[in-house]
Amino acid sequence: MTTVKMRRAHVTDFAFPLVGWVVAVGVPVAFLSVFFLLPTLTLIGRGFVDAAGAWDFSGVADVLGRPRTWRVIWQTVWMSTIATTICIILSVPGAWILYRTRFFGRGALRGIVAVPFVLPSVVVGVAFRSLFAEGAPLAFLELDGTHAAIIIGMVFFNYSVGVRTLGNMWVRLDPRAEEAATALGASPTRVFFTVTLPRLMPALASAAAVIFLFCTTSFGLVLVLGGTRTSTVETEIYFLTTGLLDLRSASVLSIVQLIVIALSLWFGSRARRAGASTQTMRTDVRARRLSRRDWPAFGVTILVIVGLLVAPLGNLIWRSLHRSGQLTVANYTDLADAAAVRVMRESVLSATWRSIVIAVVAMATAVVIGVLVSIVVTRRARSRPGRAAISFLDALFMLPLGVSAVTVGFGFLIALDKPPLDLRGSWWLIPMAQAMVAIPLVVRVVTPVLASIDPRQREVARVLGAGPARSLATVEGPFVLRSLAIGAAFAFSMSLGEFGATSFLARPTTPTLPVAIYRLVSEPGAVEQGMALAASVLLALLAGSVMAVVEMRTDTSHQIERGRP
Length: 565
Hints:
By secondary structure, this protein is mainly α. Helices cover about 70% and strands about 0% of the residues. Strands 1-3 form a two-stranded antiparallel sheet. The protein has a two-stranded parallel sheet with strand order 2-4. Strands 5-6 form a two-stranded antiparallel sheet. A hairpin with a 2-residue loop joins β5 and β6 (about 325). α3 (about 65-100) packs across α8.
């Protein structure tokens, strides 16, 4: 039996040449400074200065003194709390069935559960709208545009996060405590609530924090499903910016959102550290055969997968093949027609190609910067200031995890508008914003792999005369390639479906595919609605294809639980 105590991984001790450190540290820090720190700090500062540029805190008091502000904040919090609670409740039986039992088709079900993780929020919004809108299969429930529809969409998005987070810990819990309780006569229910559940609490708390964070930043979902009747902090920022041009009020709300997100990340981090320090994990726990006592949990899991995950996507595909009640492929053929609708000045396929090109550039940028950061933070410094600097750099590049994409896009809008950084008309603005959101994802995937490499392998390479660069390529490179491919695939998917930052930065004449979908679904015509459905299917297929790569490395999925667009 192999027992593994959770502990810090080894780090390397190679000393790189000065030029190597300058490149490895300077390039990522410069990128972060220009495309994250400057926009974010400018955004925060905008909330504390007046039109003349003088310090003025009256704007904060004014925004926080409005009843509408507190209604929006409360609406964001209570909807996210309810969605998080439902997700956690549904994730427990799902994690047990999909990770602790084995049966024919388990791999396929795990793949289906994983799909929502990479679906763009605007696609999910369109999928559920196709279920609840007038004339849709569930129109009789009258959920279109309601809070309930948004909460259901949030649960759809985050069910996979809960199942994977719980499952990855549950499958490694030492089962001897449960076996001892059973031998002493405890019923399965009592064993679960008195032995298993307390041991899962760190994973439950961590999953809840991450899910709550995702729910509060479901910008595209709320915008599509809620319309003008429901406002969250993010949609209010968007409305204040694009509708009222009230940048100061939007800045204050962005600060409020940063505080909420920071609290969620802090809580999740504490929960993960608590779990790492108190749990004894095993690597040889085998899943057991599905038995009769598992049937209730199995039934709940199948019901959730079919009813919550499969039905909306299946209905989206079915409805995309209809227009005005008639079976047709016109919705798909019109995607290539620039004159199909007035709301678009070019074909949807042109926007699709633009999105792919932007996503490739964003992915390449995120991979380069992410790998450089991972190399630096896994080196062992010889001095205490050096170790402190490396820890600071590691924390610095995790900061984008705590900032909404809407805040990033808004920050770009107000910070990069003056020489020498006037990038408002630059094509590179959108891919750089998307790369900034994806870099922490790449770092979180690659860093644990680099840090786990046995230092003795590098020492042997050094003794044999290999320099740092050659050792990095020949010793560490083969270990990193697979995880790097996973990080790159998720970075591509995230960039392809990114809507929050892009909605601020995309020009009306050159939209990305998610922006084009939002424009189409906002129009009442049958042609526009049908094309929105077809375009959503196209985007879902492009983004969802990365799951084939992810499922090849299931054990790394817990490392990327904060990477969804």
